[in-house]
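Apologies for my clumsy wording, but are you able to produce some protein sequence, whichever is easiest, and the tokens describing how it folds?
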Amino acid sequence: MSLKAFHLFFIATSVLLAVGLGIMTLQDFLERHAMAQLGWSLLSFVAALALILYATRILKKLKHVGFL
């Protein structure tokens, strides 16, 4: 497994976890109206967006590297 493939797998997994945490804390906020949960939810979605932007930069940087 190349560095490029590992990065893509790790980033995709991290994005899914961040989005899942964001959805879970957003649902908790809607049920209990705890402002801390809203903050965690927003932070999780921002982290997911930052990871997606990082993935695009890595793909451009490692364009010449193969996946295997």
User: Anything to note?
Assistant: Helices lie at 3-32, 35-61. The chain has one domain: 3-61. DSSP finds two helices and no strands in the chain. The chain has a mean pLDDT of 93.
